[in-house]
Amino acid sequence: MSDVVASRRAAPLLVAAAGLFLLTSSHAHAQWWKRAPVDFEECADAAEKSATKAEKTSALADCNAKFAGRRKPGGGYTYYDFLQDRTFDIAGPNPTPEEQKKIDESYTAYLADQRRSNEAAQAIVRQQREQQAQQLQQVALRTEVEHIPVPVERPKVQQAAPRPKGAPCTKGSFSCEWPRLSEGLSDLKKLFSPTPSKPAKKG
What we know:
- This protein has helices at 2-33, 40-48, 53-66, 97-147, 174-192; strands at residues 70-71, 77-81, 86-90.
- It has 5 helices and 3 strands; from the N terminus they run αααβββαα.
- The termini are far apart.
């Protein structure tokens, strides 16, 4: 009789366990036949229905990893390359190998453009530095030149103005005596420098 009581008590537990097993397996079967998302937007919509915030964040990270493209309003997809800071039109939710090749080639060209513009900017900076150095040299030279004393021109000796004719002459004044002295000097010069004699004519 104790066996019957024990089996009666165990029966509801067995039924509950069987029901739980059936529910779990049916949920697993439901996930098995459920269609996988075709693009990021479908994947993100499914992630929004997650029970907790942590599950939602994890599901969205999975969506980002699975799908590189984003749906365009007019149809088709676009891919954003953050390295180039630009978008590319692609046919599906992920770039095809051919599309990826074009994106990579564009990135190579982008890097070359960046290098050229950096070199040009560096050249401009160098040129500006050289001009500043030249200007500083010119300022320094000008400053040195300003410090060198410039010789002052000797003042010219003013000659006495000739005495107007007919003006009264004060005896002993320079203006009266000078013409006479000048004539005397001229006579002396003539005396000490005789005129050369002409050679005798040959007959």
